[in-house]
Amino acid sequence: MPPVPTLKTKHMLGIIASIIDGVLVGLVYGLSAMGLTLIWGVMDVINLTHGTMIVGGMFALYFLANGLGVPPYLALPPVLIGGFLAGVLLYWVAVHRMVGRPPLMSLLSTFAVNLVLIGIGTGVWGTALFNVAVSLPGVSIGRYTFPGAHILAAVLAAVIAAALYLFLHSTRLGKAVRAVANNREAAELVGIPTTRVLAVSVGCGVALAGLSGVLIGTLFPFTVLSGDGYQLKGFVVTVLGGFGNPVGALLGGVALGLLEGAVTPFVPVSWTLVIEFALFVLVLIAFPAGIFASRRGAL
Amino acid sequence: MLRRPFFWIIALVIAAFVAAPAIGDDVDLRESLALATVYITLASNLNLMLGYAGYINFGSIVFFGLGGYICVWLVDAHGWSLAPSLFAAGIGVSALAFIFGLGILRLRGPFFALSTIGVVEGVQAFVQNFGPWGGSSGIYISPEVFQPLGGAARALWVIYFALVATMGLSLYLSYAIKISKFGLGLLAIGQNEDAAAILGVPTPRYKAWAYSASAFLPAITGGLYFFKSAFIQPSDAFDLSLSTEALVVAMLGGQGTVTGVALGAYLYEELRGYLLTSEMFSHFQLVIAGVLLLVIVLFFPGGLMGFIYSRFPRTQKVLE
Amino acid sequence: MKRIFLLAAAATVFAAPAFAEDTITIGLTESQTGPLNVDSLGQQRGYELWRDQVNAAGGIKAGGKSYQVKFVAYDDQSVGGRVQQLYTRLIVQDKADFLFSPYSSGLVAPATVITEQYGKIMVDSGGAEEKPFQLGNKYLFMVITSAGHYLSGAVDALKAKNPHAKVAMVYSDDPFSKTVLTATKEQAKAAGLDIVLDESYAPSTTDFGPIVNKIISSNADAFLGGGHYSDGATLARQMYDQKANMKWESILVAPGDDKFGELGPAAMGVTVPSQWEVQVSYKPEFGPTTPEFAKAFQDKFNAKPDYHSASGYTSGMILQHAIEQAGSVDPAKVAAALNATDVTTFFGHIKFFTDPGHHGLQEAHQMVLAQWQKVNGKPGRQIVWPEAAKSADLIYPISASQ
C-alpha cells in the first residue's frame, strides 16, 4: 500500500473540492434511489428492474440527444412520461399479483422481468459503450473545477425531489399514495382505489429511475449493464435514508457521495468500496430503519 | 431416519450421480453434472435459512468464495494437501459465519437481505485489496498440485466424487434438520418469529446455528470448485449473480422442500447449459430464463413441488 | 444465427467431392453475453475471415491432404465456471483438434487445465495476462504482446518528450490492468521518471471526480492508467472537464475503440497502446498485407477491423503455418513447429518463448502507440510510436491537439 499522504494546506482545497464534488454526485445518487425506496415503502416490493430502468433513461437520453439532436436536458419530460407508463406496465405484469405476498415473491418476479430486459438489451446492443457529450461551463476554485454538467444535474435532482415531495404532500393523489403506504386495508376501507394507487406508485418509481438515468447519462458513459452498480448504490442509499422515505433517500445519497468524496483524498482509492460496505452493514445493524427515518413506511 | 423412504431416495440420487458418468467414462457428462452438484449444494444449504427460517440470504455466495480462497491459499502458499485444506475451509468459514451472523441476524426481513448483499460486496472489495490472497489478480495454482491425486485427469474424477459427496451431505443435512426439533424451531421462526420466541423457541441461537450450518458445505464446495479450476479471483469467487441464481432455483423447485430445491437446481442448470450450447437459443437464453421464471412465480408460486403436491397429494408423505 | 448460415454456406459450396473430405475442427468459446461482449466480437470476426479465406483456397495442406477448417463455438458468458465444462465438451464430444482461447485472461487459466490434460494446442489471442503461462505448459501459445509490455513504448515515448515528467498512475483493480501498471512502474522508474501517484480503483467505479482531484493535488503532468471501456472513457472525460491539464495521457483499452472519439475534445491527444492499427506497415513473409486484410475485412463485415480482429486472424494464420510446416495435425509435431516459428506477418513479428518458465509467451511482437489526433478536421487514431512504424508525429503536450 502506498504511504498515507500528509495533509498540506494546499491540499485542503483539494479535499474540500472532493467533498463538494461528492455532494453534487450524491444528490444524483439520491434521486436514483428514490424510485426504489418509494415502491418499497408503498407496497413492500423490492423492484429488481430498478437498475435496468435507470439504464433505460440513459438510452432514452442517448437516442434523443445523439440520435435526434434534442438538447439533452429536454429529454427529461418524455422520459418522465415514458417511464411512468413503463412503470404502470411493470405493475400489471409483475407486481399486481404479488401485493400482499411475502417480499420474496415480488423480488423474484421483478428479477425475472429484469432478466428478460437485460437479455434483450445485450442481445441488441451488446456491451458497447455509449456516451452523451455534455459540456457546460464549470465553476473553478483554484486548480479544481466543478464541471457545469455536475452542478446542473445536482440542481435538477434536488428540483425533482422537491416536486416529488410536493406531490406526496399537497396533492390528493399523493396523499392517497401515502395512505396506502401507511395501511393498505384501512385505505381501502375509506374508499381509496388501492389498485390504481399502487399502479401510480410503481409508475412514479420507474419514472424517477428513468429521470435519474437521464441525469447520470449527462455525466458518465454507460453500457446496458451499467444499471447494476446504481441499483446497488440505491440499496445502500435506501438503508441510509430509510425505507419508503424519498427525502431520506436524497439525504442518504448525499451522505454516500460525501463518504466517497471525503474518503478518497486520504485513503488509497481502492479501499473506498470496502469502507462503503462496512459502513453500510454497520449502519443497518445500528439503525435498522435507516438513519433518517422517522418510522418505517412513513412517506 | 433409515426407515423413511426419502432417505433411500437421496441415496439413489447420489448413486445415479456417481454411476452415470463413471460407467461410460463420460467426461462431458461429468463436467455438466459437476456444475449441477454445485448448484444443488448451494441451493440446499441456502434452503436452511430461506425455506425453513424464512430469511433471504442474497449473500450465500460469500461462503462459497471464502471457502474457495482458504482452500486454494492453503494448497498454494502453504503446500497443504487437498483434504485438510477443504476441512479447514469449512470450519473456518462456518466460524466466521457464526460471528457475522450474531451481528446481522438481529435484523429482520428485507433488512437482513440487504445486509447480506453488503457483506458480499464488502468482502469482495476487501479481498481485492488483500495482498496475501493475490488481491484482484487472484491465485493461480500450478498443475503440480494435481500430482498427489494421480495427475490432472484422475484428479478431476476424484474432485467430482468429492463434489457429489458434498452434495449428498447437503441433502441429508437438509432432510435431517427438517425432521428434527431444531428444524421445527426454524420452521416456527419462518412462520412467525415473535410467536415462536414467546413459545420458547431459542430464536437467536437457532438462527445463528442455521446460518453457520448453511456455510459449512458451500465452503467445501467452493474449495473443490476453485481447486479444480486451478485459479480463483475475487470477481468469480464473489459473483452475486450466482447467489441470486441459487435463490431463484430454490424458489423454482419449491422452497422449504429438500426435493424441490435439488430438482430445481438440477433442471435449471441443465436448462442453462442446454441454452448456452444450442445454436438457436444462446443469444436469448437470458430472455427465456426470465420468461420461465416469471411464469412460475406468477402462476405456480409453490414452485415445482407445490405443483406436484397439489396434483399428487400422496407424494407429500414421501418426497420431503 | 449468422454462423449457422455461414457454416452451411461454406459446407455446401466448398465440400467439393474432388478433394479429400478431411476437416480440422477448431474449438473455442466466445463471450457473447456478459461484460466482455464487444471485444470478443471483433476477435470472432478475425477468426471467421481467416477460416473462410483458407477454405476458399482449398483448405490447410499438410501431409499430402487438404483440410477444411470448421469451428465449434460456445458462449462462456464471461464466467470461469462454464469454461472447463465447455472446453471438455469441445475436446471430448466435438472432437476439436485445436483450440482458440476464451477472450479474457481470467478464463484462460481454467481452460488450460483441460487443454494441457488432453495435450491439445490452445492459441491465445485475447488474454494478455502472463501468469497462466508461468505454471508450466507445453501446448499454450500467445500471439499478442503480453500485459507486462503494454506501456513500455509509452514510457519510452514520454521520456523522449519530457525526461522529468511527473507521472500519476491510476488504474482499474483487475488482473490485467494491475499487471500492466505494475510492470510499467518498474519501467518508468528505470527511465528516471517521477511517480507521484500510484493507486488502483474498484472496476465498478463510476464517478472519478474525487480521483481526478487527487491527481490534480499530486501535481502530476502525465497520466498512465485506465482499465477497460467505461472507466477509461470516463477518466478521459473527467480529466478534461475538471481541467486537470495533463500534458500526457496514456489510457488502456478504451481509446482503442472508435466510439472513444465521441468524447470530442476530451479524446484529443490521448494515447493508447495497441497490438495493431490499420496504418501499421510490416512486410509479411506470408499471408495478406495490412491493406489487403483491411479490405477483405471491410468487404465481408462492412466494418473497419480493429486489433482484436487482426489478432484473431493472425492466430488462425500462425496455426495454419505451423500445421503446414509440420506436415501433420499431430499436436506434438505442430507444437514443435510453433516453438520454431519466427516469422513476420501483417500483424508483426511472431516468435514464442520456449523455456518452461514462460512457454508460449510472445517474445517478438511489440505494441504500437496510437494517438487521437484531428486528421482533416475529423478525429482519428494515428500511430506515433515506434518511429519505424509511425504514421504521424506525436503531439505533446496534448493540449496542442484539442
Q: Using DSSP, what is the number of strands of chain C?
A: 15
Low-confidence stretches of chain C: 8-20
Total of domains of chain C: 2
What value does the average pLDDT of chain B take? 84
End-to-end separation of chain C: 43 Å
Note poorly predicted spans of chain B.
Answer: none
Mean pLDDT of chain C: 87
- The CATH first-level class of chain B comes to Mainly Alpha
Count every helix of chain B, treating DSSP H or I runs of 4 or more residues as helices. Answer: 15
Explain this structure.
The complex is a heterotrimer of chains A (299), B (320) and C (402). In chain A, 60% of the residues are buried. Helix content of chain A is 70%, strand content 2%. Chain A is globular, with a radius of gyration of 19 Å. Chain A is built from 11 helices and 2 strands. The two termini of chain B are 13 Å apart. Chain C has 402 residues and is of the alpha/beta class. A 6-stranded mixed β-sheet of chain C has the order 2-3-1-4-5-6, sandwiched between helices. In chain C, helix 2 (37-56) crosses helix 10, helix 3 (80-92) runs parallel beside helix 4 (105-117) and helix 10 (307-326) crosses helix 11. The N and C termini of chain C lie far apart (43 Å). Mean pLDDT of chain C is 87; it is low at 8-20.
Give keywords:
heterotrimer; A: 299 residues; mainly alpha; ABC transporter involved in vitamin B12 uptake, BtuC; two-stranded antiparallel sheet; 11 helices; 2% strand; disordered C terminus; B: 320 residues; 15 helices
